[in-house]
Amino acid sequence: MATRFVLIQPSHAGNVGAAARALKVMGFDDLVLVQPRWEDVLALDETIERASGAVDVLRKARAVDTLEEALDGVTHVMGTVMTPRDFGPPTFTPREHLAAIAPAGHHVAFLFGSERYGMRNDDVYRCHAALRIPVAPDYGSLNLAAAIQVIAYEWRQALGGFDLPPPAPPVAADAAAVAGMLKHWEQALVEIGFLDPAAPKKLMPRLNQLFNRAQPTPEEIHILRGVAKSMAEAARKAKP
Questions:
Q1: Which of 16, 41, 145, 170 has its Cβ near the most Cβ atoms within 10 Å?
Q2: How many alpha carbons fall within 13 Å on the CB side of residue 168?
Q3: Burial of 30 by CB count in 10 Å (0-12 exposed, 13-18 middle, 19+ buried)?
Q4: Which helix (H) or strand (E) holds 226?
Q5: DSSP characters over 13-58
Q6: Are 50 and 23 in contact (CB under 8 A)?
Q7: What is the pLDDT of residue 166?
Q8: CATH homologous superfamily of domain 3-158?
Q9: What residue ranges do the domains of the chain occupy?
Q10: Largest Cα–Cα separation, the chain
């Protein structure tokens, strides 16, 4: 779904770079700056450094003079606020509102105010909805880039999220490695007196089945052989 993030009068180059990074990790790349403090903010070293690899988002981003230009083509505008405005649009948490509008197919825009002043009332009144991130009641100050990351994450989740690849299954040690480890353990168990070689009963076959079920990896086989070695050495040292 077409998605735009609009920063109104951003004053810190680092926040612009961090915003680009926040967008890219959530799969968005439409960033517009309205009257940024620095005309060349998208090319500043601090901006590029804070983007941390999201330079393609910065290259595509643009600066405009008016909010009208930034909202060209947008059909649903949402402003981020700390406190609801009198006579302003209804205020929602991001999760409840974004889940409700995701199926509608809007071209959406998220507005973020200046680091210094937040969003002006006139800009909030332009919005169809205001979004308030639930924060601790005694400290609600969010860094601009952090707020963008939260909104970008919630919007991506509302759109269905990303499918994470399943973890690769561990590679089990082969039968020869398991057999060698069991032989090592058999010798160590004899050394410590736990296994009587004259009457072994079913101990080793049972251990064999245990490790077959566990399917130890080569690294785990190495650890188990180390344990067996340490047991045998400790038993030899303990003998008079």
A1: 16
A2: 3
A3: middle
A4: helix 218-238
A5: HHHHHHHHHHHHHTT---EEEES-SSTTGGG-HHHHHHHTT-HHHH
A6: no
A7: 83
A8: SPOUT methyltransferase, trefoil knot domain (3.40.1280.10)
A9: 3-158, 175-238
A10: 91
Instruction: Determine the Cα–Cα distance for residues 65 and 79; give it in Å rounded to an integer.
Output: 18
What pLDDT score does 100 carry? 93
Task: Quickly name the fold that domain 175-238 has.
Answer: Helicase, Ruva Protein; domain 3 (1.10.8)
Q: Residue 196 burial (CB < 10 Å; 0-12/13-18/19+)?
A: exposed
CA 135 – CA 118 distance, rounded (Å): 16
| The two three-digit tokens of residue 220, written as one number | 């785990």
Average pLDDT of span 12-33: 94
Arithmetic mean of pLDDT over the chain: 91
Closest C-alpha to 18, from 37, 39, 60, 46: 46
DSSP alpha helix (H) spans, 75-217: 94-101, 121-125, 144-158, 175-191, 203-214
> In terms of Cα–Cα distance, which of 17, 61, 9 is closest to 37?
9
The average pLDDT across 111-139 equals: 89
pTM: 0.72
Per-residue pLDDT tens over the stretch 40-83: 889 889 999 999 989 999 999 999 999 999 999 999 999 998 77
Whether the pLDDT of residue 86 is over 80: the answer is no
Amino acid in the structure at residue 66: T
